[in-house]
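@here heads up, posting the sequence + SMILES for the S-adenosylmethionine run so it's all in one place. Ping me if the SMILES looks off, I pulled it from an old spreadsheet.
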Amino acid sequence: MGRAPDAPSADDALAANRAWWDAAVPVHLGSDFYDVEGWLEEGRGPKPREAALLGDVTGLELVHLQCHFGKDTLSWARAGAGVTGLDFSPTAVDAARSLAARAGLADRADFVCAPVADAVDALGGRTFDIVYVSLGALCWLPRIDQWAAQVGALLRPGGRLFLHEVHPMSTALADDDLTVVYPYFEESAPYADSQAGTYADTTATEALPGEVTYGWNHSLGEIVGALLGQGLRLDLLDEHDWTSFPRYPWLVETGEERFVMPEDRVRVPLSFTLLASRT
Ligand SMILES: C[S@@+](CC[C@H](N)C(=O)[O-])C[C@H]1O[C@@H](n2cnc3c(N)ncnc32)[C@H](O)[C@@H]1O
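bot reply: prediction finished. Complex structure tokens:
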């Protein structure tokens, strides 16, 4: 990972990212990390911590931005919400529709293929009770103000945003020695990443041989400020010393889908949870 020497245009960067995500979908569907078969067999719902934060969602309409192949989206359908997932990868959206059918949730789930920047138009101007966004979403978006504008327009009065995301401080740190090597604040030029494999399967080097993907970091203040700029109210901001995937290869897995710093290292924030609402 590092600054792209000849940074591509945002459109070219997004096209490269989309091709990479198309290739990642089949790898993720078969990975132990996502454990799709276990999720189907056990009928698992949303993560307990997230369900406790959002409360009873029965009958609510939820949109999941950057829904990938829909596992988290469909978990909310199991909890009683009517769900819509949006992702720019056609392969991911096809996989999400198939998963909905296999899980017997197709009548409560809709999946739309579009970039987040076009979410409001792609969803026909619909508004929702909950906008849900989870780990590994914002770093793929060039501008946080454009994302916040979409979130703001998708929320109906009383609607809530749930965001659990990689902490931008942790994105800025090198994988091995945690020195600051990547931008903390949003920059127009993306950083480049060419690791082979994915966070869900680092051995998938044939399917994902390390083509370059592009990301943009957004500081915590920029994320909060962009949401406040949409007239949303900040209800919760919690920085965590844990995350749900091996952000650094040497993180320690503790169970309950959590990875933490080893005890001999100074803790840095690894993820954060933010709740906001349209009053
Ligand atoms: C890390 S995954 C999200 C994972 C999700 N939290 C989960 O565990 O299922 C990121 C997703 O963002 C999607 N994505 C990336 N850039 C996007 C964009 N500009 N518009 C819409 N989707 C995008 C990718 O296709 C991918 O499915």
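MO: The longest strand covers residues 155-166.
MO: One more: The chain has one domain: 2-165+184-241+271-277.
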